[in-house]
Amino acid sequence: MTPEGDRDLDLLHALQRGEDAALNHLMERWEARLFAFAWRSTHNSADAQDLVAETFVRLYQQRASLRSDSRLAAWLYTTLANLCRNQHRWRSRHPTLSFDATGSEGVPSVAAPVSDAPSIPEAMEQRENALLVASALDRLPHDLRLTVLLYYFERLSYRDIGEVVGCSERGVETRLYRARALLRESLAAPSGREP
Asked: Is 43 left (phi over 0), alpha (psi -120 to 50) or beta?
């Protein structure tokens, strides 16, 4: 196990012994990564924050039932992925407009040095490309999108992803292959839209 995994287990054991401060340390260690994952899944900051908070609530509630050799990273991502899936299902039945989805990602900040900032046409092209990729990712089936997010954005191993999504390492490899093929097909279509 990695030193980070060992530290997580130590904190989990402390939490199981009733040391509630261990939860604060786990939150400090994992909150930013989990938020990034949740935001990529929901495209909404408020929803992402709520889902991450719910993940930590569930960790606290289920602390006693977790095995002493639990892989905390896999447990956290599995719980959050399930919450994101439930949120997605709920949102598909109750659609709303997210102001976050049309934010300023890809546009240089005012504080960026002029020499490092892309020209306006380059920034617009980068933004358009990012939106096309995000749109193509959103059109992937949930299991494929989840696998792509965990592998490319969260940098989890095939083993950890397999634990989160409930398949073998070979299954993860297959899902990534299928996702890349669908993304290539989607992005090759005119304007990045499906044929």
From this structure: left
Q: Please write the tens of the pLDDT for every residue from 142-169.
A: 889 999 999 998 888 899 899 888 899 9
Q: Which residues of 134-151 are buried (b: 16+ CB within 10 A; e: fewer)?
A: eebbeebeebbbbbbbbb
Domain 112-195 has CATH 3.30.110.30: no
pTM above 0.70, yes or no: no
Give yes or no for a contact between 64 and 16, defined as CB atoms under 8 angstroms apart. yes
Q: How far apart are CA 74 and CA 191, in angstroms?
A: 36
The residues spanned by each domain of the chain are 1-98, 112-195
d(Cα 90, Cα 97) in Å, to the nearest integer? Answer: 14
The separation between CA 94 and the C-alpha centre of its own chain, rounded to angstroms, equals 22
